[in-house]
Amino acid sequence: MADWVTISALATAGGTLVLAVATFASVRSANRAARVAERSLLVGLRPLLMPSRLEDGAQKVGFADEHFVMVPGGGGSAEVTDNAVYLVMSVRNAGNGIA
Known about the structure:
Blueprint: H1 4-45, E1 49-51, E2 59-62, E3 68-71, E4 76-80, E5 85-89, E6 91-93
Antiparallel strand pairs: 1-6, 2-3, 4-5
């Protein structure tokens, strides 16, 4: 004759195992969806730096040692002093993010 206590314990264990597998699959799928959503949000926040146009105005660029360089639109500048070499390039942010 069948031992009903053992059968009911095994049925409960099997049901619990099925629920654990379903929960694991659901959490894994939700994590993947959250990662995709986060990446698509970050793409919209990323800056996209491109060379500026020739018709853009000149910009005054300052360095930490109080040295300033004027750079024309669509161009760059290089200055050499006794203490440092200063390289500047005029760029434009074509993306949505803060550059």
